[in-house]
């Protein structure tokens, strides 16, 4: 029996314990975006430090001005150096009344697609990061070591703009630098087909508040001559798209590449079922730019979205108020060589030039990040793909991703290394939504997958 | 000394007691729009019943499916029959943190413009309705009776669409019918010039919720092909006005009259200071339809306003959600012969026809009411105007009003009587806003004004 076979057997035998450990982590309410959960974020970090130490990692909690980082080092004395990244913070749980069970009371639910782990963070990203820890645990248990030099970085601010990340990477570059990074925050192509994400959209995020009158007014007394900031805001946001779904911001499409015929052919071969993808969430028609397939709209086209809007009276009944303020949270998803800073500046300039008399705007910016394209010809990508193909029913594929994983750009810029993005989430995991889940198969075969990938990369 | 002079002297001597009684009423948190305050609304009704009974009215609380009515009868055995109307319910107090003192802990604040009564409801409408009760109290104390037959109707749902009002008026028409109604829910022209409002805008109110995806989605996974209902809503609302500020709804201006030269001349003579009116709330430019003065925009032109909007993530930080729903509360203010039902239907039709694929809309309607124009040639109007002119530094004026007082239309339609709209609010009373106040002068001279008006109308 090879080392790897013994490790895989150990993983299978230890499954229930692995699930129990994940449940412990899922019970910690580590919502990073809401300051009320600061202590919970720290508790999650401490839990991870203790768990890493229990399997022989030299692990520590590293405090930051925000939520702490967790860093661990372990494994072989020499050989390939890997840095694994995940995040222990989770999204808020509102609207809470749409959850069928308590978001921080994890449970196994039987579903038509098999058993799932149900909890906030089950898929994004606690379940995913634990697949890697469990793979390491098994390697250590069976062989006493790891097949490569492994460092681990867990962040607690991924869902809240990662304000501490760049300073931390910069200050600890020598400690964290490796040959390649492994990032587990993405998904499978489908339940039988593992995927390595090689194109990621970037992001620009802004919160804007438009102020008109100096106080809330009565629409009977002032309706007509008083400027209504909700009206101003809806006009500004509505004008961000033309009737074909294109974003109207000047210069927005600078740096957006046309898809090569080769990539188009590869994506066509995936037989993406847009009807099923949209149908699962109650939709039937791709609503993005005209002339692009749903898959292209997600992976290869940039977007502008309003993620939240609020102003005036929003309680029960009616209140004929003309509010003083109206606000929105918006994000752009970027592709190719779009420049996040230029787009942020263009958006602010557009909004400011669109303000009528007596209105002003205030801004809160989210960290922005460019899109990323991986060098898929590097050997690590083929080795990882083959290792995944050994584990799952179908061979692994290289795919795009509509999401933004800013860490990948930071690793390249600050630590000079590329990232192999492997994850076991499924499209219906409902991350960021009520009833988030992680397939039990994703978890168990995810652990086995990392055991294989560690073995494979030791030969890179 | 005439009866009236003795009554006025009694009012002056009793001022502190009158303020104390108003404070008792202001302490009751009778927010009608929020079900949590149901008991408080009933307590306010009971307080009024007791107070009316204490001055010899045959008074009772009349329960309804919503908040109760208060009805009282008193005064002369024959002569002119008057029905006084006011409302004891108040607006919600949010945003609470913008109040300088507790909204339900009334106090006298000294201001550069003199002392004011500070509390939610001080002006709208508890302070106003108490001016009439105190005038009756003084007449009773001095003469043992009232100079006319007086009935009183207090409502507790004025700020929440008055759902029980029409059924109650219909069921009790014989009891409530009078020669003319007196309504105290309007304002002075300025602090020295009393006003009788003879034109009122009507109202249509709708809450709409647009649904796109069946659940909240992650904008990384779905951004592009997924329909964002906030985007749909902002487009629909933005398209309700053209670039000149006109409402674009088909047929919206049917029944909107041009102002007669006579009314224009009368309004011009008022020397309305638009700069001061807007400047007091941080504005400088009338934002309504081009080609109309600010006063015309308030009194003579219809409007469409968004009073509240919400959707997606509105908490601290960012959440890259594509929400399932987005909602808005909107109101139209109507003038002339605009048909509220036709406008409601046109708005619903417009929204439904503007929905893209995969979206639906749900509605909650507020009671609608047409605009009203009073028969100012009837003798009661001249008598009331002269009585007010006797009390205040400047003669009383007939004015328009941007607000909607649906009761006036109901009184005409159900009880066959017109209304004399007299009130002592000032433009800066901040009704419906934090720090609502009522000038102490409005209160004390308001009481004296009603004492005079009662006397005058007994001669109609």
Automatic annotation (TrEMBL), chains A, B:
Organism annotation: Oceanomicrobium pacificus
Biological processes, Gene Ontology terms: proteolysis
Protein known as: Dipeptidase
Domain Peptidase M20 dimerisation: 200-358
PANTHER family named among the record's database cross-references: BETA-ALA-HIS DIPEPTIDASE, SUCCINYL-DIAMINOPIMELATE DESUCCINYLASE
InterPro entries with a match to the protein in the record: Cyt/Met_Dipeptidase, Peptidase_M20, Peptidase_M20_dimer
Pfam families found in the cross-reference section: M20_dimer, Peptidase_M20
SUPFAM superfamilies: Zn-dependent exopeptidases
GO molecular function terms listed in the Swiss-Prot or TrEMBL record: metal ion binding; peptidase activity
Domain of life: Bacteria
Keywords: Hydrolase, Metal-binding, Protease
